[in-house]
Amino acid sequence: MTKGILGRKVGMTQVYDDTGRVVPVTVIQAGPCHVLQLRTVDRDGYEAVQLGFLDKPRRLASQSERGQVAKKMSSKRSKKRSAAGVELPEKAGCEPKRFVRELRGPADGRGVGDEVTVTALSEIGSVDVTATCKGRGFSGVMKRHNFAGQRATHGVKKCHRHAGGTGMSASPSRLFKGRRMAGQYGNVQVTVRNLDLVRVDEENSLILVRGGVPGPNGGYVVIRETNKI
Questions:
Q1: What pTM, to 2 d.p., does this model score?
Q2: Cβ-count burial of 174 within 10 angstroms (0-12 exposed, 13-18 middle, 19+ buried)?
């Protein structure tokens, strides 16, 4: 299994290393997470471990979310499958989770219902952090693509931040796909790779990662052991 864990971004601060230098870090509340399912090649076509983070009140959880972590004896489908002799998958037996993601790779001895804590990352030097970056709405080309904009004087009137001409010649008489223009900016999944793991606080389930990670404070993140050398 690729060593990893789910968490939530707390915020940024700075710490001192052994040489007295200031290191900017992002604090992440990582785990504890429960193993909800194990994907196998025979049944699913690939190997992965499904983790769940942060309990969700049962009154807010849907029937499918409850059935993901606990057996539903009254379910018509489960009764029919049991009567047919089909072995039902094992359940974690925990509370429904707010944030569920899969980590590709073999289970490596983990079972459904096991708890994953920050100790799984204690011997790792660098990690990859995946999260949804901040959404900035409909943005212009200067903000979205770092365009320089037009001149401030001499013929440019009330369109200093516009993109300028985008037309092409009579042939092909159209724009090619991929032309950089104004549009939706942010609110996409971003992975920042090969960040140094500065510190692991097992008592408080916190990890300190050098530099910034995507998303706002309180946003959910996925931390994996990096494969970048």
A1: 0.83
A2: exposed
